[in-house]
């Protein structure tokens, strides 16, 4: 998305610069952010072409605060990022889904729902 910064920074209440670190052999700057329902961390490659090397997202509104970790490698910038790499390739067994049929679907299965302890 063209305005990723605006979406990431929406409702951020605290930011910490945690110095540097290594992700996949790449030296990175390391930052942590707090929101009401989530905390997230990002590692950004140092150098003339910075790019995200990793994220950690912590869900604070769920029991045990699960974390989701993403590490990114082989990031391409400039001419190396060919637009052909982003063309949709429809697999032979794909089925068209009407978005209205997806209403009510949750991001997590029912057994992950927040509820009263038993």
Written account of the structure:
Strands 1-2-3-4-5 form a 5-stranded antiparallel beta sheet, with no helix packed on it. The longest helix is centred in the first third of the chain and has 6 residues, at 4-9. The mean pLDDT is 84. 5% of the residues lie in helices and 34% in strands. The radius of gyration is 18 Å and the shape is flat. The chain has one domain (4-112). The termini are far apart. It is mostly beta strands and 118 residues long. The chain has 1 helix and 5 strands.
Q: What is the percentage of strand-forming residues?
A: 25-35%
Uncertain regions spanning at least 5 consecutive residues = none
Widest beta sheet: strand line-up? 1-2-3-4-5
* Helix/strand order: HEEEEE
Structural class: mainly beta
Number of helices: 1
Shape label: flat
Largest sheet entry: 5 strands, antiparallel
DSSP strand count: 5
Distance between the termini: 42 Å
Helical content (DSSP H or I, runs of 4+)? under 10%
Q: Return Rg in Å.
A: 18 Å
Number of individual domains: 1
Mean pLDDT: 84
Please sum up the structure shown.
The chain is mostly beta strands and 118 residues long. Helix content is 5%, strand content 34%.
Helix and strand arrangement:
Elements (H helix, E strand, L loop, with lengths): L3 H6 L4 E10 L2 E9 L3 E8 L6 E8 L7 E5 L47
Antiparallel strand pairs: 1-2, 2-3, 3-4, 4-5
Key words describing this protein structure:
118 residues, mainly beta, 5-stranded antiparallel sheet, 1 helix, 5 strands, flat
């Amino acid at each position: 998305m063209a305005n990723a910064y605006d979406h990431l920074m929406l409702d951020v209440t605290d930011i910490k610069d945690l110095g540097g670190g290594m992700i996949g052999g790449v030296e990175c700057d390391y930052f942590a952010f707090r929101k009401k329902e989530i905390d997230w961390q990002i590692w950004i490659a140092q150098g003339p072409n910075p790019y995200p090397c990793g994220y950690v997202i912590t869900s604070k509104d769920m029991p045990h605060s699960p974390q989701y970790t993403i590490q990114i490698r082989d990031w391409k910038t400039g001419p190396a990022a060919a637009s052909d790499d982003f063309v949709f390739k429809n697999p032979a067994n794909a089925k068209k889904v009407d978005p209205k049929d997806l209403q009510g679907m949750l991001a997590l299965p029912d057994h992950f729902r927040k509820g009263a302890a038993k």
